[in-house]
Specification:
The protein is of the alpha+beta class. The chain has two domains: about 1-195 and about 300-345, Antithrombin, subunit I, domain 2 (Antithrombin, Chain I, domain 2, 2-Layer Sandwich); about 200-295 and about 350-395, Alpha-1-antitrypsin, domain 1, CATH 2.30.39.10. About 25% of the residues lie in helices and about 35% in strands. The chain has helices at about 25-45, 55-70, 70-80, 90-100, 125-135, 150-165, 265-275, 280-285; strands at about 1-15, 50-55, 110-120, 140-145, 180-195, 205-210, 215-235, 240-245, 255-260, 285-295, 300-305, 335-350, 370-375, 380-385, 390-395. Strands 2, 6, 7, 8, 9, 10, 13, 14 and 15 form a nine-stranded mixed β-sheet that branches. Strands 4-3-5-1-12-11 form a six-stranded mixed β-sheet, sandwiched between helices. A hairpin with a 5-residue loop joins strand 7 (about 215-235) and strand 8 (about 240-245). The longest helix is centred in the first third of the chain and has 19 residues, at about 25-45. It starts with a strand and ends in a 5-residue tail after the last strand.
């Protein structure tokens, strides 16, 4: 079981009409392609560290901004996201995904939400407000950025309320000290669920985990013997990758864990193979297999500066005061994005409770079942079964960090 939350904040400061190119890709694959492309760039930037990110949260924020973008700013967002929000067919195919994520009632708690925090006195375009209301039930709130502490408290209160989590992923928004701030675009993704097959507490013991630097650690490691979807795949460079699917209650969301089969293969080599083409192929060809599963408990929390990675996706103009064009949001002033902050966290344990300070040492029965032992760096992602949407993606390099 695990709980997850993520928050994306795009702060717009005191900003600039072009039609974007059309993409003929299947809308179902748009999010997967965006998620994996974003992750690869983040993985390079956050080299050799634990990482977790919610592409769904970032996708939502950028999609909302695309509604209000014009000119080259709109074109860049269109190319990066792979769709045009003004294309009604695309919009109709994407919106039900957000609605299903936000209104999931079976099994996992999955909540996706977004809000606009607007400086008092700024008049938003009525058409943009209409789009925002449709895009994942966006809400608009007035605020006063000249009072940064109150604004931060207001935004964090909304984050806590929208996730329903008392320990929500609140942000210390240092950037809102600027008195010129006009609009903050905030989106959240929260996930909490119980494993379909729980890892018994009695089976957890201290086992070895070897980091990419070769450091040997003793970490609390969960154990479960169960029938799960499993597969082993050969890459173009002849490396083997083991993939296991661990579903949550209701089987509407699953965690996929990707592990190099050979200890000599680095996780970076696995990450290079994951794409919008390979992952659907892997996941669809997994087979039911009786497995002995070893998975470390872990908790990861990241505070990421998206201004460092979004330019790699071709999104540059919105950060430039002289080039950004968000006149579709408001004709007042010249809006641009001063900060793009994303914060995400994940905690994986036997049944989702906090890890205890005492670990029981137990002897496990020998089994002839194949073993999936995540005792070295691995990659994971959470995918919604019905939509294929990747809610979270990340990697574990060191369970002790």
């Amino acid at each position: 079981m695990l709980s997850l939350s993520a928050t994306t904040v795009l702060l717009s400061l005191c900003s600039l009409n072009v039609r974007g190119c059309e993409h003929n890709k299947d809308p179902k694959n748009l999010r997967t392609e965006f998620a994996l492309t974003l992750y690869k760039h983040l993985a390079e930037f956050e080299n050799k560290t634990n990482l977790v990110v919610s592409p769904a949260s970032i996708f939502l924020s950028l999609g909302l901004l695309q509604f209000g973008a014009q000119g080259n700013t709109f074109a860049q967002l269109t190319r990066a996201l792979g769709y045009n929000t003004h294309d009604q067919d695309v919009h109709n195919s994407l919106y039900p995904v957000d609605k299903e994520v936000a209104n999931s009632t079976q099994g996992p708690v999955v909540q996706l939400a977004s809000a606009l925090f607007v400086q008092d006195g700024i008049h938003l375009s009525p058409q943009f407000i209409q789009y925002a209301a449709l895009w994942a039930n966006n809400t608009v709130q007035q605020t006063n950025f000249s009072q940064p502490n109150r604004t931060a408290a207001q935004i964090n209160e909304w984050i806590t309320t929208s996730t329903g989590d008392g320990e929500a992923n609140c942000l210390s928004l240092d950037a809102i000290d600027a008195t010129l701030n006009q609009i903050a675009v905030v989106s959240t993704m929260y996930f909490k669920s119980t494993w379909q097959r729980r890892f018994p507490f009695a089976n957890t013991q201290l086992l070895s985990f070897t980091t990419s630097e070769g450091v040997l650690l003793k970490v609390p490691t969960m154990y479960l013997s169960a029938e799960v979807n499993y597969g082993e795949f050969l890459t173009d460079s002849l490396e083997r990758i083991s993939v296991i699917e661990l579903p949550y209650v209701g089987e509407t969301v699953s965690m996929f864990v990707m592990l190099p089969s050979d200890r000599r293969t680095s996780l970076a080599q696995v990450e290079m193979q994951l794409s919008a083409q390979t992952f659907p192929l892997w996941s669809s060809t997994l087979r039911r297999t009786k497995m002995a599963i070893f998975l470390p408990r872990f908790r990861i929390q990241n505070h990421l500066d998206l201004k460092m990675v979004l330019p790699a996706l071709g999104i540059t103009d919105m950060f430039d005061p002289t080039q950004a064009n968000f006149k579709g949001i408001s004709e007042q002033g010249s809006l641009y994005i001063s900060e793009a902050i994303h914060k995400a966290k994940i905690e994986v344990a036997e049944n989702g409770t906090s890890a205890s300070g005492t670990t029981a040492m137990v002897l496990l029965k020998r089994s002839r079942a194949p073993v999936f032992k995540a005792d070295r760096p691995f990659q994971f992602l959470l995918r919604q079964a019905s939509t294929g949407s990747i809610l979270f993606i990340g990697r574990l390099m060191n369970p002790m960090e």
